Amino acid sequence: MSGAEAGRGNAERDVVVRSDEVRAALAEGRGVVALESTILCHGLPFPKSLETHRAAEAAVRREGAVPALVAVVDGVPRAGLDDAAAEALARAGSRVRKATTRDLGLLAARGESGATTVAATMAIAAASGIRVFATGGIGGVHRGAGETFDVSADLLELSRTRVVVVAAGAKAVLDLPKTLEALETLGVPVIGFGTAELPAFWMRSSGLQLEVRCDDADEVACLVAAHWAWPASGGLLVANPVPAEAALPREVVEGAIERSLSAAREQGVAGKAVTPFLLARLAEETEGRTLAANEALVVSNAGLAGRIAVALAGR
Ligand code: PSU
Ligand code: MN
């Protein structure tokens, strides 16, 4: 690394405040896994949100890695929030602004807090030296995007930021074929973990074939390292199907998605309110079954991310 590059790296790292544990783990070359805060504040209702977050942290630790909850607190991007801070965010819920990458400067300027989406969490993770991140499902191309232009900033961030995102594919409320096409266009490898099909969040399969399949964390780490050897490369998506015992049947989910989408249209829900609205509505439509599946897949993704972070740290 040249002196200029090293200088830039340090400057970037100073933008984010890392907890002592996260800083030490990174300095020692241990595995660290970023966890996002939008799911904590907007994706799941309290107290399921906090329970899921705690279970995800425990899953990361069981694999020998260190979890780093990412959020913006009073204008300061942070990686590694303690349990009290996590609880405060979960209790504040949707009163905390949902923040994507473009909001990071705004929050800093105004000293405001933000719950970071996949995109903003990736940006903060990369600036902190964290290379692996676990979430539920990424944002993508919404159904009807031809009219609304609603395409998640998560896709753009995946194209440019070097973080491995472990998710149960993209959320099933989206247009999954178009999301997969967009990921190809944006140069984002999609690795099926133990599957050759794109998982569909609460469901294990979407019927959409993937070109890359890995069956263990070392294989993923090897592929990630090779991808990052290429100068212009960005993020990767590791698509991990929801555990079989928590998966929901397609008949249950598809009808509920259709009804939720109609409700969103009727109520004129648009922009960044769409995803939280649909997730909350789906939970009602399925009498909480999507919440149980969401919890199971987040915890499973956190464990896999822990294994990948450890494998990557050892390379
Ligand atoms: N995964 C979940 N629940 C969520 C999200 C992901 O299981 O709530 C969040 C992520 O923060 C993701 C966001 O970035 O939904 C997508 O929002 P949008 O479609 O507005 O980009
Ligand atoms: Mn959107």
Helix proportion range:
40-55%
- Judging from the principal axes of the Cα atoms, what is the shape? globular
Bound molecules: pseudouridine-5'-monophosphate, manganese (II) ion
Low-pLDDT residue intervals, each spanning 5 or more residues? 1-13
The CATH topology is: Indigoidine synthase fold
Give me the side-by-side strand order of the main sheet: 1-4-3-2-7-8-11-9-10
Averaged pLDDT? 95
Tally of strands? 11
Specify the number of helices.
14
Radius of gyration: 18 Å
Largest sheet: 9 strands, mixed
Amino- and carboxy-terminal Cα gap: 18 Å
CATH homologous superfamily annotation:
Indigoidine synthase domain
What order do the SSEs take from the amino end to the carboxyl end, as H and E?
HEHEHHEEHEHEHEHHEHEEHEHHH
CATH architecture: 3-Layer(aba) Sandwich
The total tally of domains equals 1
> In the CATH hierarchy, what is the class?
Alpha Beta
Class by alpha and beta content: alpha/beta
Residue fraction in strands:
5-15%
Structure report:
It is a single chain. The protein is an alpha/beta fold. The protein has one domain: Indigoidine synthase fold (3-Layer(aba) Sandwich). The protein is built from 14 helices and eleven strands. The strands form two sheets. The chain has a nine-stranded mixed β-sheet with strand order 1-4-3-2-7-8-11-9-10, sandwiched between helices. Helix 11 packs across helix 14. The longest helix is centred in the last third of the chain and has 25 residues. The two termini are 18 Å apart. The N terminus is likely disordered. Bound molecules: pseudouridine-5'-monophosphate (PSU) and manganese (II) ion. The site of manganese (II) ion has 4 residues, from loops.
